[in-house]
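Model the whole thing, not chain by chain.
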Amino acid sequence: MIAKFPPFPVFQHFIRSIAVVLLALVLTSGCTVRMAPDYDAANVAKIDQLSESLSKLVAGFDEQQSYADRKSAYDDNFAKLNALIIRMQARPSPQPVFLDWLGSKLANKDVSKILRESDAPSIASLQNIQKKLTWMSEYDQKKQLSRMMAALTWNEIQSFLTDAMVYEQALNR
Amino acid sequence: MTAIDSGQLLANILTAVNGAIGKDIQKLGGYAETKLQAIAKQGEMVASAYASGQINQEVTQHFLDGIEDMATNFLRTLQGLARIEVEKAWNAMVGAIWDAISQATGGALRLVKPGL
């Protein structure tokens, strides 16, 4: 004979009480979940400014000019990128435990790594722009940068800028 | 204390979740489509530039790696956006449950509403 669980009314009452207390604790503690950083309008404005100055340097690349002519524009953009990356890295970013757990269960290491990253993805977008701009400046210095290479670099940078902007704007929830 | 109508609660949860993320999901679809088109266009341009001799093999490899960077960054951003949507859906859902419990208990529990 299979006994009904739980068999004793006192035990049933105990379980019910625990459940009510737990529910009350969860609800009264204001269980708002935060899974991403807070919105910062200044970051959106800074990405916008960065987009404008990068566009002048990369999309407006002029083969008639030399690296020396562009040096200050490179320096200015690298400085803006560094400052914005540091600003975003300093922003607190929540890391829900279940994403760590889910990430650890995935077979694909790249996807698993991305899922477990707690940094805002806009930081990686800006780091990618840094990488592309470094490559471009090195080729420019060697006088090996063509109009086509600058155009292809601009496509890459534009893609990362869009990613960063879309994410930062989505934080405005 | 009045009883909670679970059917109505489910309808309220769905309305709250749809209200919180419905339009965002459409925007997410638009963003994803634009990005995939941009990545495909870059692939086309790299191939064409290499074929016409405008870029050498070393530079072509650099831009092919760049396409991989674009795709990885897109995936990373999409995951970040999805995380925001999960957050919104969760909070909308808990908010709807909070409303139901609050009504059923006549506000006796003094619950802190999520999102406030």
